[in-house]
Amino acid sequence: MAKQPPPGTGAKPGLHPRNPHRGRYDIPALLAVCPELAPFLRPNPSGEPTVDFTDPAAVRTLNRALLASVYGVRHWDLPPGYLCPPVPGRADYIHHLADLLATDGLPPRGPATRVLDVGVGAGAIYPLLGHRSYGWSFLGTDIDPGALASSRAILAANPDLEGAIQLRLQKDPARILAGVLLPGETFAASLCNPPFHGSPAEAREGTQRKWRNLGRPGAPVLNFGGRAGELWCEGGEVAFLSRLIEESAAAPQACRWFTSLLSKSSNLPPIQAALRKARAPHVRILEMAQGQKRSRIVAWSFQEPGR
Fold it and tell me: How far apart are CA 274 and CA 281, in angstroms?
């Protein structure tokens, strides 16, 4: 189970109360399990050590240190160019999902809660966090054989995880659920981090705009990495999520709750229209925040929520 942050480290505003990353990073604990983080530390204006988040290698190494220190995951790494998901934000999704699945206010625990990760990526980050935090079991799907090979290598390096996390290739990149799920296969929930942008140019501009807003116009593009299918698709997150909603309506019993991140509030109206068209009787919008960043989880179900 994930460790809680030490007291007195200061809280990151907006993160879920159970998120162990609400406090400042425990640098000595991170260095104890990941000494290779040391070269990436720089003093902040207060003289405290921090990580340069404009450096892709620093971000990847911080992830490795957090996963080892807080979640007991060893030997985590990514091939060059793949998306390096920030652990605190991904953990927040897991904890909000646990609240969505809760019974009498208690999040479910144990492998009987099976979760589908649509687009598991090269780092298997959601399955790692979900299993370590709540003991859930996972099926991760992806259209990229290289991403699945990387995730399999992570599981092989952590043998206690292999039985809890399965991986499966979606052979048809035009489909999301269809063709990759087995007949009669069911899950407590699905989760998804869709490609947010509609083109490579839009992805680059989004990253450049972020760094300009932070006063770092010279920062490198794609500091968190990411390949085409991870960052953009034609039509962006609205097109992807609309397709997921359409496919979920064709397999309404596959998940008690279908869920996905939605980055832009301006994209919410067309997604709500797609949910009405799919006749999803139960829809929830779960707001999330990390500092100045705001996002949301869209959740929908074709079943009675208590089932």
Answer: 12
Q: How far is CA 67 from the centre of its chain?
A: 14
- Phi and psi of 6, rounded to 5°? -65, 150
> Is 116 inside a domain boundary?
yes
| Distance, CA of 190 to CA of 233 (rounded, Å) | 20
Q: Residue 266's domain is classified under what CATH number?
A: 3.40.50.150
Structural domains counted in the chain? 1
Look up the domain containing 116 and give its range. Answer: 81-301
On whether the CB atoms of residues 63 and 86 are closer than 8 A, the answer is yes
Question: What is the rounded distance in angstroms from the CA atom of residue 133 to the CA atom of residue 92?
Answer: 11
Specify if 204 maps to a domain.
yes
Residue 272 lies in a domain: yes
Q: What is the pTM of this model?
A: 0.86
What is the C-alpha separation between 109 and 189, in angstroms, rounded?
13
Chain segment 191-214, per-residue pLDDT in tens: 999 875 454 555 455 555 554 554
